[in-house]
Structures are given as structure tokens and as C-alpha cells.
């Protein structure tokens, strides 16, 4: 018997959400599998987006971390730090940002805070454009640019935030439009917002909204936005915390589906790059990164041990072409899920790219979100030995699938079969 849940309830804040009626304590993992306290094994179709970009207990990362732990973990600032410089160099090389500078933080939230610090200082403006249904983190300023009400626990931000359309296609006034008309409608909305505000510092957007339900804006949307923003000197911040490092298969960064007008001014990243070690960061052109006129350091951002993990993990990802694996295996998985859900009236859409796949549920025969069935499917999948996530701003009615990027075809098929069964048994 595991009494950890009751202890958790007594000591942790009420707002610290857990999945499942009987939450799982994960005790160890290997590859794409994790084990719980009772020794039950699960195929992990969600940990890839949270912490584990490549594989659980990847030997290359474990070795790099334990060797570094035995050598030195010191401040990431004030003294030269070799693994930090080396990882920054590698990230700059793959960033697609000209004259890139890299700054490391400990989380995605802190990365986005840093991006806001840069953009507001560079533009001398505290007005920010953000997307409806977005999620950018939990700090005071990050919740101030988070459009997803369920993840924005205070409205007292000192930023002036204006929300624009575009992140979600299945709902809202522009639902049902084809790609071209959808983009035109969103650009018209953006221009309308710009006509009623002081000059904003930046637009921040997730290329594919993560917490918002793995949504799928049309390719080119942010390029069309970029044309409008550029004309007014407004910066484009791409929050790549979920979409970076090849997850979307076709592209190494999510913004590359919107690259016609050049790369973003600022990119933020976090989550899986350390394969569980806490790495976040910001990439920006030197002109923007260097606009701060006083010291700004992070004691733990860029420590040798997290950087050692990042170097080993990114090296593994590139050497084994895990972006290509995400494209191939993710493509098969999407096709397979579309086939098995085609006859299910409650499945409105299977969407996604690479290994970032959303399954949106509605009450059968209606257009209404169906969070209750989504929760039931999560439970049923768990019973079947599969961990998935859920999300979505219009009630939590999208299932989220994001396995480690090393997922095999056999594992994809096994997971699809469990999910099919879970969906069937939940109606
Ligand atoms: N941005 C996005 C797109 C995210 O999905 C998240 C985390 N869910 C964050 C920022 C915040 O990252 P962290 O939890 O590491 O602070």
C-alpha cells in the first residue's frame, strides 16, 4: 500500500494538479517505459514532452551526469564554465538564428520571463501580444501572458497583454475556414488589435500550443503575422518549450513551419533538452540579447551538471536522427490513430506532426467539448498500461500524445492498440 497520495494531499498545495483518481508514483524508467510503485510497467506516451526527450535512463546521459557530479558542480556564473559554453555553441549552431547568443535558465517559465525582460527593455514597452489559449509558465509575468484561463491563476500582471486569434482552429469565430482564409482572418484580427494599442514590445506564441491541446495552426500563420509585426518593429518570440528539438518531425523547431519571413527574434526552450535535468534557455540575436544594461544572472541556470546532461542528450538526438524518427514513427502513429478512430463519433480530430499528437474529443453528435470522456480515456489507457496526457483550453478535452523521440514502430503500434481499446471502453 502506497500512502504517498494522502501525504501529498496534506503537505502540497491544493492547486498542484495530479493525473488519475489514484495517482501514480513513478519509481523508475528505461527507454520508453516507466514502472510504478507496485512494479507495474507502462508505455510512456507523455513523458517525452515533460522531461524525457530521448529515452528514460539513457546511458549516455546517466554517464555524463554521474561523471560531472563526481567532478564539480559550481556556480554557472562568475567563473568560466566549459560545458555551458560548449552547449551554448551547439545550440547556436542548430538555432537558425543569426549572430545567436544563448542564456541558460532553470525552467521554461524563467526562459519566458527572460524573453519578456529582453523584449520589454529592447522596445521600451510593457505591452505584449499573446495568443488566446496559450500557456507560457507559472511566474507572475508568465501567467500574465497565458491565455488559457485554467492555467492562469492570477490576473494581476503588470504587463499590458492583448490576446489575438490563431492558435486554435477547431473553435472560435474562425473555425471551419480553410488555411488561407483562416490566416487572412487572423491577420485582420492582429491588425485590428494593433490599431487600438500602444506599440507592443513583442508577440509571444507557441508554434503548436502544448497545454492548449496540441493544436494545429496552418503553416505560414506566424510568417503572415511576422510581416505585419516587422513593419512596426515588434519582436516575435517563439516559445519552443514543447515544440523544439525535432519533436514535430518535419522541422527541428516549430517556428520553421512559419519561416518564410525569417527566424524569430527570440526563441525560448526548456523541458526535455536535459532529459530530466532542469535546463531552460533563451536564444536571441546579439543585438537583442545584449540590450540589458545591468547584471542579470541565474545561479543554477547552466550548472555544469545540467549542461553535461544537455550535451550528451543533444549529441544523442543529432547522431541518431531522432527528428527523422519523430517524422517516420509519428507519421505512422497519426495514420494509425486516424484509422482506428474513424468510426468513433466522439473523436473530432486526430491532429499533429511528428511525435506531438492531439486527439480532440466531443460529445458524440455535437460540437461540445467532452472533458469527462477525456478523463475516462486517460484512466482506461492507464489500466491498459499506457500513459498519455490531456489538455485544451475549451475544457480539457484533447488527449495529448508525446512519447520520447526514440519511440519504435512496435511501441507506436502497441500504444495505438491500447488507446483504441481505451476509447472504445469509455463510451
Ligand atoms: N512554455 C510552454 C509552451 C510550456 O508548455 C511550459 C510548461 N508546460 C512552459 C513554458 C513552462 O515551463 P516550466 O514548467 O519548465 O516552467
TrEMBL record:
Pfam families listed in its UniProt record: Aminotran_3
Gene3D superfamilies registered for this protein in UniProt: Aspartate Aminotransferase, domain 1 (3.90.1150.10), Type I PLP-dependent aspartate aminotransferase-like (Major domain) (3.40.640.10)
Cofactors: pyridoxal 5'-phosphate
Keywords: Aminotransferase, Pyridoxal phosphate, Transferase
This enzyme's EC code(s): 2.6.1.44
Enzyme class (EC, first level): transferase
Keyword Transferase appears in the UniProt entry: yes
InterPro entries, sorted: Aminotrans_3, PyrdxlP-dep_Trfase, PyrdxlP-dep_Trfase_major, PyrdxlP-dep_Trfase_small
GO MF term list: alanine-glyoxylate transaminase activity; pyridoxal phosphate binding
Family: Belongs to the class-III pyridoxal-phosphate-dependent aminotransferase family.
Subunit text: Homotetramer.
Name this polypeptide is given: alanine--glyoxylate transaminase
Organism of origin: Streptomyces echinatus
